What we know:
This protein is α/β, with parallel strands linked by helices. It has helices at about 5-15, 30-40, 60-70, 75-90, 110-130, 155-165, 175-185, 200-220, 230-235, 265-280, 290-295, 295-305, 310-325, 330-335; strands spanning about 100-105, 140-145, 190-195, 220-225, 255-260. The protein is globular.
Amino acid sequence: xxxxxxxxxxxxxxxxxxxxxxxxxxxxxxxxxxxxxxxxxxxxxxxxxxxxxxxxxxxxxxxxxxxxxxxxxxxxxxxxxxxxxxxxxxxxxxxxxxxxxxxxxxxxxxxxxxxxxxxxxxxxxxxxxxxxxxxxxxxxxxxxxxxxxxxxxxxxxxxxxxxxxxxxxxxxxxxxxxxxxxxxxxxxxxxxxxxxxxxxxxxxxxxxxxxxxxxxxxxxxxxxxxxxxxxxxxxxxxxxxxxxxxxxxxxxxxxxxxxxxxxxxxxxxxxxxxxxxxxxxxxxxxxxxxxxxxxxxxxxxxxxxxxxxxxxxxxxxxxxxxxxxxxxxxxxxxxxxxxxxxxxxx
Length: 346
């Protein structure tokens, strides 16, 4: 028989003695990781505290790493989304039944996941500011749709338990423990990413049966995020028995936040320019000219095609390249050297 590598062994390998490691993403798949992301200060580094230009740039240089990540900027879309979710949380706060969640949908590359995580971090930070930090409080749970297991079922209970750090004893169902912890730790917001992974039929029905049970037992408000998520979520959470009247809107009552790329009409161009300007405020380069990046907004718009994912990548790579070349400013010529969205013959 092959040796079985259990979860404890894996955690021992991962959480062993501290050692120097290459930079890696900020995972939010456990309560500890989520809390660390909420508490982590993402302010741009002060140039006075950074290595001077005559020092060879290290891969773990704080300024280099900050530009590689490029924190989300507070856009009008984020402000609107925060307001919608806040209203739902406030309305659901004391309801035993009749809660309504929020749906986030949109094409690839339009910032759905970033928006959802921003909402969760903002909610938790707001509670910490109002009531002081409390290790016994778990206001937010952030999950991705778990992979399908044997028979095509998804172990949602294991996903919740893993995030919360609950011990799982073999085949014991941890759902009751999950609800108990969520009730007594004040969990009011559950973020579910990757809704588009659910398959039509039994997969969707079983998943929402479990999620509805969690919501009913804990009073949590759910935010569902994914491409085409409204067409997946809505049929599961609205009245499907009553025949709609003529000309009646067939959709349900969940607010739907729709992300999209920024188009090339004047409104889209103006919004894009404002977003680029917000990114420019975060740049920490030694030789920038005022408005360098914002002046390049038309070029960035064409290169990114209005998608925020591509825009963030372009700005990140441009800033890092400006550091590596000692140019320390972003120019049109530097943008031309980047390969995002380009076809390269090799």
